[in-house]
C-alpha cells in the first residue's frame, strides 16, 4: 500500500465510458493481468483462513459488484456457499488496501484490450466509492474511466482545476483587489463564488446519474 501512496495519479486521460458486459468468469488472460496486483496486496493477509481461495473470492467480489444488489441479497457462483454478508468484509478490506485503485490505474494506463475486465473493475471501483475518498476521484480522472464513478466527472470536486484557477486567477486577483474600483471588486467576488461552486462538485449524487 505504501507503493500505491507514492504512485502518480495526476493528469487525466480522455474521458470515456466502458461498454457494459454481463458477468462471466474471468479468462486466463484476465487472471494473468490482475494476479500480480492481487498477489502483492492481498495474498499475504493475516487472519482466519477462508475455505475459498483468493481468486474465487476476487471473482465473487467482481460478480457482486456487477449485480448491484445489496450485500445481504448477494449470492455468487464464483464462491458457492459464501453469502454476501460474509463477502462484504472481504470487499471492504480490499478497498482499504486500495486494490481497486491499483487495478483501475493499471488497466487504464496499460490498455490491455480486455473490455469485459475493464467494465468489471469499474463496477467494483464504483461500488467501493465511499471508501475511495478524493484519491478515488483522482484515480478515475487520471484513467479517464467515467464508468468507475457514480456520476459524470463534472459532478465531483476537481482539485486540478481548482489549483490552476487559484494560481492564475484567484491569487493574483486577491492581491490586487483593494486597488480596483468597487464594481470590479464585486464582479471578481461573484466570479470567485461561481468558481468555488464549480470546484466543489455536487453535494448529492443522484442514482439516475450512475452509468450503465
Automatic annotation (TrEMBL):
<protein>
    <submittedName>
        <fullName>Transposase</fullName>
    </submittedName>
</protein>
Amino acid at each position: 500500500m505504501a507503493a500505491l501512496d507514492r504512485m502518480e495519479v495526476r493528469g487525466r486521460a480522455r474521458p470515456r465510458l466502458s461498454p457494459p458486459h454481463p458477468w462471466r468468469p474471468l479468462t486466463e488472460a484476465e487472471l494473468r493481468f490482475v494476479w500480480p496486483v492481487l498477489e502483492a496486496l492481498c495474498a499475504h493477509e493475516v487472519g482466519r483462513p477462508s475455505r475459498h481461495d483468493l481468486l474465487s473470492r476476487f471473482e465473487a467480489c467482481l460478480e457482486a459488484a456487477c449485480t448491484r444488489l445489496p450485500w445481504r441479497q448477494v449470492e455468487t457462483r464464483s464462491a458457492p456457499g459464501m453469502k454476501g454478508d460474509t463477502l462484504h468484509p472481504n470487499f471492504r478490506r480490499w478497498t482499504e488496501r486500495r486494490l481497486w485503485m491499483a487495478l483501475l490505474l493499471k488497466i487504464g494506463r496499460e490498455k490491455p484490450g480486455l473490455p469485459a475486465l475493464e467494465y468489471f473493475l469499474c463496477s467494483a471501483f464504483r461500488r467501493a466509492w465511499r471508501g475511495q475518498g478524493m484519491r478515488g476521484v483522482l484515480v478515475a480522472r487520471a484513467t479517464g474511466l467515467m464508468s468507475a464513478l457514480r456520476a459524470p466527472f463534472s459532478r465531483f470536486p476537481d482539485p486540478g482545476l481548482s489549483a490552476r484557477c487559484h494560481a492564475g486567477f484567484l491569487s493574483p486577483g486577491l492581491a490586487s483587489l483593494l486597488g480596483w474600483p468597487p464594481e470590479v471588486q464585486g464582479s471578481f467576488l461573484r466570479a470567485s463564488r461561481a468558481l468555488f461552486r464549480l470546484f466543489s462538485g455536487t453535494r448529492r449524487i443522484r442514482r439516475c446519474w450512475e452509468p450503465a
